């Protein structure tokens, strides 16, 4: 049986016209003759390095899952690439995607990671993909947080099953920024087993249609959104009342303080020298209290009124 290689394919007169090629070999060969390639299948091989793709500038789909790739590299010339499949390799860092300005789908699920490690994301690549990436598959990668993915605001589909996500507050915060998210699969994450998990994510994702493989009924979504709005309004009202109760009435406090208060001095001395309160056009404390009290007598106790009466009479 003849083994199919790039060299053998190159002998074909129509080689340069091929748009779809599946090449089953261990080391990625020279594809300089494949200038018209749009789809390249290289999955289920033993490829350890991404290379020799510089001439495939028209490539839109690249399938390289289930190989031995440990580093995402040499993809900068693939400006038209829209779908990249790298699942089942040995990648530890999602990087090297800075120049892929047309990438809409990225599949990096099920990486063969060292024990105890998780798949991490290079901020530069995530930032570059923020305006184009719509579908992301990061399942089975021991991921325990997704803050680094927050810039991906164009995402419509996220597959993140079999990871270690458990902070629902974090999930709500990130997902609420993805206004176009329609499908979300978080099955078999610790967060899935927490109280109100489904309700909280449905209210956070305004147009989500499918959560963990279950369709979201629009009537149920609206009920949950209204319920959350009502709950937030009640909490806001309660918080406002609590703050109001904590603020003391300044006038009432003035009459109930100890010896530091001006009226706590010898009363007879104050009554015998009313002129001291009026010299140089200064308005006395009693005058001020008297004026303030005309429309607010209901806030004083009988003891407060008696004290006020004595002070005012003494000044006149």
Textual characterization of the structure:
- The chain is of the alpha/beta class and 316 residues long.
- 29% of the residues lie in helices and 10% in strands.
- It has nine helices and twelve strands.
- A ten-stranded mixed β-sheet has the order 1-2-3-4-6-8-9-10-11-12, with no helix packed on it. The protein has a two-stranded parallel ribbon with strand order 5-7.
- Keywords: Leucine-rich repeat, Repeat.
- Residues 256-297 are annotated as: Disordered.
- This is Protein phosphatase 1 regulatory subunit 42.
Keywords:
alpha/beta, ten-stranded mixed sheet, two-stranded parallel sheet, 9 helices, 12 strands, repeat
What is the N-to-C order of secondary-structure elements (H for helix, E for strand)? HEEEEEEEHEEHEHEEHHHHH
Strand content: 5-15%
Query: Main sheet, how many strands, which sense, barrel?
Result: 10 strands, mixed
Which percent bin holds the helix content? 25-40%
Mean pLDDT: 78
CATH superfamily of the largest domain: Ribonuclease Inhibitor
Please mark out the parts with pLDDT under 50 across 5 or more consecutive residues, or reply none.
8-17, 263-282
Cross-sheet strand order for the largest sheet:
1-2-3-4-6-8-9-10-11-12
Span of the ends, CA to CA: 122 Å
Q: Can you tell me the number of structural domains?
A: 2
**Strand elements, count:** 12
Structural class: alpha/beta
**What name does the CATH topology of the largest domain carry?**
Leucine-rich repeat, LRR (right-handed beta-alpha superhelix)
Q: What is the annotated CATH architecture of the largest domain? A: Alpha-Beta Horseshoe
Query: What is the gyration radius calculated from CA atoms?
Result: 36 Å
Outline type = elongated
CATH class of the largest domain: Alpha Beta
* Individual helix count: 9
Region (Disordered): 256-297
Keywords: Leucine-rich repeat, Repeat
Protein name: Protein phosphatase 1 regulatory subunit 42
